[in-house]
Amino acid sequence: MAQFFKAKPNKSKQISPKQSFEIESLDHLGAGVAHHQGKIVFIAGALPGERVTAQLVEQKKRHAKGKLLKIERASKERIAPPCPYYGQCGGCDQQHLELDKQRQYKGQTLVNLIEKMGQTQVEEIAEPLVGDAWHYRRKARLATQYLRETKELVLGFRALASDKVVGIAACPVLDAQLSQLLSPLQQTLNLLSARRSLGHVELIAVDSGPLVVLRITQALGEQDKGKLSEFAQQHSAALVLLDGDGQLETISGSEALPYYRLDECQLSFAPGSFIQVNGEMNRKMVTQAMSWLDVQSGERVLDLFCGVGNFTLPLAKAGAQVIGVEGVEAMVAQAKRNAAQSGIDNAAFYHADLSDDIATQPWLVRIDKLLLDPARAGAYESLQWLKKMKPKAVVYISCNPVSLARDCEPLLEQGYRLKKLGLVDMFPQTHHIEAMALFELAN
Length: 443
Description:
This protein has 443 residues and is of the alpha/beta class. The chain has helices at residues 99-117, 176-189, 222-234, 279-293, 312-317, 329-341, 386-389, 401-413, and strands at residues 19-22, 25-26, 32-36, 39-43, 51-59, 63-73, 124-125, 139-147, 152-158, 165-167, 198-206, 209-216, 238-242, 248-252, 259-262, 265-268, 300-304, 321-326, 347-351, 369-372, 393-398, 416-424, 434-441. Strands 7-22-23-21-20-17-18-19 form an eight-stranded mixed sheet, sandwiched between helices. It has a seven-stranded mixed sheet with strand order 10-9-8-11-12-13-14, covered by helices on one side. It has a six-stranded mixed sheet with strand order 1-5-6-4-3-2, with no helix packed on it.
């Protein structure tokens, strides 16, 4: 007799009845934390001291996730989010909390994670680096979605954990120049005959001026290019097309790469390459890193995950002999060009996979100081070679405090102590925590 498979219900995804929860604290992702029937419950959007109505939408053995339905008793720290798209767009997630409290929670969360997960005490907690809370993003990638029913192209950000694109006419955390482009850009894109084949849109506002990078999946006709050129000229922006092979075609503006200035250096970068999205905080971060490292003329400094030279070039300007290492070959080549156009001859750049075995790399030598600015995965593999480098001081810039806490282990094992730790509020209105740590070799 044939047997038919019947899927078992997924208990972890079963939705519970509506229940009330008392919120006790915030977790490191900014969600409210409650306890219910022996489980920790995480409820995004809830604040400490609040009583909320929520449904459990995902349950595990020891924890669960709840969907916020209603605020029964609001916190005094809760404010009305100023953005009309808040709660729909998947970008900001802390606009409902006062700015000072956002920073207070981030700072305390950072220290708690490092001391508990990193198994070390912080000798000095530095004053947080802060800046403008609005219109701070100088670079953003927007998604497009073609709606067959209305034959309309939607331009905006994706909803949280969804493929749906939330169309936006303005964004309060985008650079004002870029925010003002959103509505007319969406109108222009909807005039194109090839609008169904458009991909993402990258917006950049740096010292070279505003730039629109339009990803295309098929070649555009001359009429479509003309409409884009007219838009760009009308709004004093450069506009380039980016095809599937990574080739750029300038529609309007200079063919030169965009650039930003930093400590008398000019750093050019290709669209799609990583740069810090908050220009003001990047300047403050570089200044603090230089101060913490206390670089002296002639010292040998290694800058791992160096990108296009964001820290390398200012370190070289200070008189150090700097070695920059980066995993993206094109960015290494650009870093070399940036050094040359800034008149810097005391910086050398190398390409290497820093998550791989680097034992035979020519740059892995004894150094005086080390700077690390890794991606979210951290720098655990690179730090296994500290014995060979033996720097007196290490400045670690982190966009993920969990990986920073984990990476404390090899530093502590090699005789370093955590001298300073400070919050860098790179992304106001979000839960994201950027940090800077100074480790010094104990005598």
